[in-house]
Amino acid sequence: MDKFVITGGKRLEGTVAVSGAKNAALPAMAAALLTDQRVALHNIPRVRDIATMGRLLTHIQADVEIPEAAEGAVRIRTEKISHAEAPYELVRTMRASVLVLGPLVARTGYARVSLPGGCAIGARPVDLHIKALELMGAKIETEHGYIEARAPAEGGLRGAHIVFEKITVTGTENVLMAATLANGETLLENCAREPEVADLAALLVKMGARIEGAGTATIRVEGVGRLGGAEHRVIPDRIETGTLLAAVAITGGKVRITRAEAAHVAAVISKLSETGAAIDTFEPGTLCVEGSGQAAPADVTTQEYPGFPTDMQAQYMALATQADGTSVITETIFENRFLHASEMTRMGADIAIEGRRAVVRGPSRLTGTAVMASDLRASAGLVLAALVARGETVVDRVYHIDRGYERIEEKLSKLGARIRRVS
Ligand code: EPZ
What we know:
This protein has a 4-stranded mixed sheet. Strands 2-15-17-16 form a 4-stranded mixed sheet. A 4-stranded mixed sheet has the order 4-5-3-14, with helices on one face. The chain is built from 14 helices and 24 strands. The chain starts with a strand and ends with a strand. Helix content is 31%, strand content 24%. Helix 5 runs parallel beside helix 6 (169-180) and helix 8 (238-251) runs parallel beside helix 10.
């Protein structure tokens, strides 16, 4: 198992480019199941979750090409589907596998997808995906750990009025994909407004879908008989962008972040600015960030987009340990997403967890030690803490970080960080 060995204390300086968004790339790949034509996707990050989605689509009998070089387009063609199934072995390693449920049942009338089960950050049920597909006429049974969905034999899925009880990102994406091939109009309310949802809709529209309102809380879809091939470039990764911004803020460095989309990280920019970082978004696609040397404390509450992302909470916590005063971090999206706090405490941070609130008292003098990554973003938080810790930190289980950050150690070391991967 790989580890990162990080020696803290270096300011980050230079220029770094953001990769494509993992959480936009995964639904885009699943969307390729909706057509028998070729879908070509650009800016797909070469991270482990993308390889897992590639394996899943191959299992479903799609022809998947993922060239090694990130510049090469990922090409997917699913001429026919003879195996409409997402097996436990793959869903277990990546919950986003559930994204094939909507496309499979819409295209073939049948899908068998393993129930994802809980994960490190919370229970994470998929009941809202299931309820919405039921409203579209699907008969769904869950047995032996699998969701089995069948569209009505006559006419397939039909348009429906769906009001999500709670905002769900992949739930919105799953149902949006299913609705593109349903009979009649689907009206989706209380949808996730994440840029990844809007990006998926942009791809679906290129494939011939009729969608209005994606990126807002209300999405209207007029089902069509078939979808065709398309070529699409996925959006930059806003969580990688935010992670890099926080890394510069915490080390007090000065960096140009290119191939980014500032509008997608507005809440992060505003919070980091409150802590004293100077962030300039004047040049389109580029963010110039300069750390203040001494961060000020600022409370933060995670929210659905356009609020402050839960996927940036661990990285922000690392910064809060260095702020001069108390920051209260409230996590509203997942019930158990403070696992990194105990590892940061082992590094010398002063963090008290009270239910969904973490009270972080800074500035703490962090020192390097061996820490364990528990999930993707928690690992990123630990890497950031290690960048300012005195001495050497060994971050174990970096396979978590490899799920969603493309060559993070190369990017950080080009900016001057002392970080290396050991096997
Ligand atoms: C997406 O997960 C992201 N994953 C997550 O990114 C991200 O943390 C999350 O959205 C929130 O922004 C992908 O896009 C692939 P949700 P998702 O459904 O869609 C509850 C990362 O690190 N809920 O929006 O699974 C759920 O338990 C990952 O890249 C139900 O109760 O999240 C949670 O409390 C981790 N029933 C809340 O809603 C449901 O049917 C929001 O979850 C669905 C969700």
